[in-house]
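step: validate -> pass
step: tokenize input -> pass
step: predict -> running
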Amino acid sequence: MPKRILQGTVVSDKSDKTVVVRVERRYTHPLFKKTVRKSKKYKAHDEANACKTGDIVVIQESAPISKNKHWVVLADAKAT
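step: predict -> pass
step: emit ->
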């Protein structure tokens, strides 16, 4: 099964080697036909502590690293 890859914005970098990434998805509401924005936060492993708040990053699903951390930062989205 392929690993999921998501793009989001770093909202917190206060933990050591961990960043919190907010991933936003947009979809059309089935009844009201309006575009709805829904976001979810993921904790991702950042080995080099390179990401700062506000950066747009790409994260990939991985094996569990800790209790709540199952994602790894692949790259800065601006660099790719």
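step: describe -> The beta strands are 5-12, 18-28, 35-45, 56-61, 69-76.
step: cleanup -> pass
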